[in-house]
Amino acid sequence: MRVLESRLLLLLSIGIGAAAPAQTIGIAPADKLLADGHYRRAEVAIRAALARTPNDAHYLSDLSIVDWAFNRLDSAIANGEKAVAADPRSAEAHAHLGDALGAKLASSNAGTFEKIALVHRFRKEVDKTLEFDPNDVDALQDLAQFYWNAPGMVGGDKNKARQTADRLFPISPFRAATARADFLNDDTNLPRRNAAVITVWRTAVAARPDDYEARAALAAACLEDPARFGDAETEANRAVAIDPTRVNAWSTLATLYAKIGRWAELDATLKQARAKVSDDRTPQYRAAVAILTSNATAQLSLAETWLRDYLTQPPEGQAPSHAGAHWRLGLVLEKQGRKADAIRELQTAVQMDGSLDAAKRDLKRLT
Q1: Least confident residue range of 109-123, 177-191, 280-294, 351-365
Q2: Which branch of life, at top level (predicted)?
């Protein structure tokens, strides 16, 4: 957040994080794919459905989710607007338009007045959603995070944020925990914050032990504390047992084994993950980054192989970008003493994504 020129920008740079929209309505295969994070597969099914029924509010709303997942935020808003126009009383359509507007607001470099307009549009869609469905988890989570992150002049209220998360918990412990974990981001004491986040996720898991998302989130939280690596492994394995076709828990296991040098388990994990989720190679990307950041010099060739392989297929929605992979590959090559190759990868990263400031700094450092 920032201040009137500075003060108003401070007040209007609101951190509304968009969690993956809930998507369990209906019986179409795309709904299950979206719920499980298989956005590329879902998009094929959704576009085929829309070719048959172009004004179907449900599929237009689904397409808005896919656009959100791939950070095509203007398109996400446009498809959300089409969904609302097709069915003005659809809570789902209003909720996912609100998600897209919230994501746009959080990522926007727009001026003050444009941000004000986005805030008002966002609140309108959240309020409409809850008018039609008071228990909509997307809208309740968005509202909780809005209340927490927004300044008071545009409706922020931390007490209301907590109350909204409490209201959400019986409906979706996972979504309530996502909001509560976001609340903890204000704590600059990292050990204390990590411990509190773990407690939040343990509460969600206790409420619904078979919830994959909560288990996977608990595992990822434990991975932030070396003293809890054992818990991270246990919870990630439990999540995999619940649903081996989803990628997040595999990514946690891959990261963990790379961090602690359990190479045989890492190799087995990546093979299993690839067999179960062949179109999402995020686990090997995460393992490569862990090798890079842990200075496991003897394994840099593995990291290079995994990053190059990651670049052979399009990234999944919400997965690391190809620009990010080129940047990480450049750093791996630098550590191997291949400066010219490293520079080429960094140049590619910056050309693909001009917002990668860290890659720009590394490129400047090497040239």
Answers
A1: 109-123
A2: Bacteria
Average pLDDT of the residues of the chain: 91
Token code pair at residue 347: 């140049």
Residues 153 and 201 in one domain: no
**Rounded Cα distance, 186 and 347, in Å:** 35
- Does residue 192 share a domain with residue 170? no
Same structural domain for residues 102 and 133?
yes
Q: Tokens representing 164? A: 């909204």
Backbone angles phi, psi at 87, to 5 degrees: -145, 85
Contacts of residue 2, defined as CB under 8 A and 6 or more positions apart, other chains included, come to 9, 10, 13
Look at residue 40 and tell me whether its pLDDT is greater than 70.
yes
Of 150, 178, 206, which residue is a domain's last? 178
Are residues 154 and 199 both part of a single domain?
no
Q: How far is CA 271 from CA 36, 37, 257, 276, 306, in A?
A: 20, 20, 13, 9, 12
CB 153 within 8 A of CB 160: no
Q: How far apart are CA 227 and CA 62, in angstroms?
A: 40
**Residue 319 φ/ψ, nearest 5 degrees:** -95, 165
118 touches 158 (CB < 8 A): no
pTM given for the model: 0.88
Identify whether residues 224 and 88 lie together within a single domain: no
Give the position of tokens 């909560």. 214
Domain coverage including residue 58: 1-178
d(CA 263, CA 291): 11
For the ranges 2-11, 21-30, 116-125, the lowest mean pLDDT is seen at 2-11
Mean pLDDT of 138-153: 92
